[in-house]
Amino acid sequence: DAGVIQSPRHEVTEMGQEVTLRCKPISGHNSLFWYRQTMMRGLELLIYFNNNVPIDDSGMPEDRFSAKMPNASFSTLKIQPSEPRDSAVYFCASSLRGLGNEQFFGPGTRLTVL
Amino acid sequence: GIQVEQSPPDLILQEGANSTLRCNFSDSVNNLQWFHQNPWGQLINLFYIPSGTKQNGRLSATTVATERYSLLYISSSQTTDSGVYFCAVEARGYSTLTFGKGTMLLVSP
After folding, report:
1. Which residues of chain B have pLDDT under 70?
2. Cα torsion through B68, B73, B79, B80, rounded to 10
3. Is the preceding peptide bond at B8 cis, omega within 30 degrees of 0?
4. A6 in contact with chain B, both atoms CB, cutoff 8 A
5. Is A55 in the B-facing interface, judged by CB distances under 8 Å?
6. Cβ atoms B2, B91 nearer than 8 A
7. CB-based contact A102 B95, cutoff 8 Å
8. What is the pLDDT of residue A62?
9. pLDDT beneath 70: ranges in chain A
């Protein structure tokens, strides 16, 4: 298996633009997680899905952020409009089932909002 | 919300040395995990250990849930162990993970 795939690996955009991050989980995994990492706030779990259904989105910072999982093999994290404070590395991870199983991480997307 | 504190914040070791990293948490948990982030940013889930002891090669972890702490042991450290080690907990009654700030480990040859 290719592991968790994220795209793009790097994204530079201007404030106010829409940003879409993409993730393909490991085939057969039923849970998918979106994380954000910054120097100021460390690692944060933004949202996770079980069987394509959002279970907990308490970490989503504000309404500008939205995440979808239309099928078992694809998820998006969208920021609209983007702001400089959204600059961070965004990781996607997947596990067989839920928070209590080993998570496998993608390489991350480094987002810079100018 | 639950507080997660890791110590020490930084650690420098000579290759071959042993070390113990600590994670304290402020409330009861359903789930505790240890992660390693290498110097290139890649994250790896090391252990899922809400209680008890687990071992994986040179690494082992122990969680004493009643006393609200977990320990990660690294024996015979290698330069490839360098990076940041994070502890994360799922507080009882919640369904999200809260991370500590991490312990940055540098193993020198």
Report:
1. none
2. -70
3. yes
4. no
5. yes
6. yes
7. no
8. 84
9. 1
